[in-house]
Backbone:
């Protein structure tokens, strides 16, 4: 069974840092792009970051560029999101998702259960 | 930048057909994917490539895409279909994935 399990969320003060992890199982992790998608309380879905299979390409939504870093460890079947200089508007449930890439499009399947990040003093 | 527009809510009686739209400029030229998110749960892919269903998704779920509107159709709606539904495309102008604002489906 393909499974993604996030961890590392919690309460952090504005300006603080947090590192999220996502443990993957049930598929060949090193063969897939991976992504982080977030959802603020009561709001819709927002893509945050992507990383290529070998980690050589990384992409971010403009609002997190320079503050967040996506990375992976294929030997550990794990995806990470290092979040620095956190702001109140970063408060959200963060989902890890496998990105399925086809020539002209891509989609996310499956998703992890999510981990809640709350930025507040 | 590209914008996807979904109605905030759609209501339907059990056993009837629900249609959830996703509007975008010439969206028919893009591939549209749909996700179902039940309260307190992670999103689940229900339609990809406009109209394909992942394994395990009931045949009651179908999709279409033409012109400026993509549509997710749920036939013979059940109480368990009550959820938020999101459309998603690849925005070639930004080279990023893009989600619609979501539609809350209420089963009356």
Residues:
């Amino acid at each position: 069974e393909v499974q993604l399990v996030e961890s590392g969320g919690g309460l952090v003060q504005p300006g603080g840092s947090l590192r999220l992890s996502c443990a993957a199982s049930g598929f060949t992790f090193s063969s897939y792009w991976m992504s982080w998608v977030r959802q603020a309380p009561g709001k819709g879905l927002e893509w945050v970051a992507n990383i290529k299979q070998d980690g050589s390409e990384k992409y971010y939504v403009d609002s997190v560029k320079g503050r967040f870093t996506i990375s992976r460890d294929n030997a550990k079947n794990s995806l990470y999101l290092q979040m620095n200089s956190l702001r109140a508007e970063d408060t959200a449930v963060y989902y890890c998702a496998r990105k399925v890439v086809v020539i002209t499009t891509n989609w996310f399947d499956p998703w992890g259960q999510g981990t809640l990040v709350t930025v507040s003093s | 930048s590209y914008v996807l527009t979904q109605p905030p809510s759609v209501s339907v009686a059990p056993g009837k057909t629900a249609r959830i739209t996703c509007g975008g400029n010439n969206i028919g030229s893009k591939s549209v994917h749909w996700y179902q998110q039940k309260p307190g749960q992670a999103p689940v892919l229900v339609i990809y490539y406009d109209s394909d269903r992942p394994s395990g998704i009931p045949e009651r779920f179908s999709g279409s895409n033409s012109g400026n509107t993509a549509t997710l159709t749920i036939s013979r709606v059940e109480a368990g279909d009550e959820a938020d539904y999101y459309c998603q495309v690849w925005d070639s102008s930004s080279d990023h994935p893009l989600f619609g604002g979501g539609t809350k489906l209420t089963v009356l």
About this structure: The mean pLDDT of chain A is 97. DSSP finds no helices and eleven strands in chain A.
